[in-house]
Amino acid sequence: MSLIEIFNLWKTFQMGQEEVHALRGLNLAIEQGEYVAIMGPSGSGKSTLMNIIGCLDTPTRGSYKLNAQFVADLSEDELARIRNKEIGFVFQTFNLLPRSTALHNVELPLIYNGTPKNTRREKAVEALTIVGLADRMSHKPNELSGGQRQRVAIARALVNDPAIILADEPTGNLDSTTTKDIMKLLTDLNLCGNTLIVVTHESDIARYADRTINLFDGNVTETDEK
């Protein structure tokens, strides 16, 4: 049984008088522990698909099963728990609180789920150590380089020990050297057992994955495996 199972998925947006189909009957399965790249040009449906996989959006029709559960059957509280505990998000723009330290930014998911303060700090320190920022915990985002900020974002994604890490263009704002460092870090996390899904339009980034799912006009055109 696959960790992620998607059947005949459609997502339609109403743009004035016109309907725009971001996803068109898409079928997809992702196994526990896989490293998958979702690739395609702008407008291919990559971000829409990632938002649905991450339980940030719902399909217009079709079904999505996560860990053998139909996501459509879950309550808002259950979806919030999945977003907080089961899925770690890494975004191109980092999405860090500018006035908070790296440590506090990483603690945020634990604050939201009511983890006690001492445990929060311990887990956040551990996550920052894993990403190589043990000596930058008290720094705020404007005191960190772009690569260090993305490492903080990855630590925040990791702090709840999620089953899935979703990374949307995780190196889009980084130089080539820092990009290699971040992709090595993500690859190492996958080797430790995390299911990793990277959304990208860059073939150099997709090459790190074990399997590349190519999207065009809201559907899978081909799947490439190493």
From TrEMBL:
GO terms for molecular function: ATP binding. This is ABC transporter ATP-binding protein. SUPFAM superfamilies: P-loop containing nucleoside triphosphate hydrolases. Residues 4-226 form the ABC transporter domain. The keyword ATP-binding applies. The keyword Nucleotide-binding applies. Keywords: ATP-binding, Nucleotide-binding, Transport. PANTHER family: ABC TRANSPORTER ABCH.1 (PTHR24220:SF86), IMPORT ATP-BINDING PROTEIN (PTHR24220). Gene3D superfamilies: P-loop containing nucleotide triphosphate hydrolases. It comes from the Bacteria.
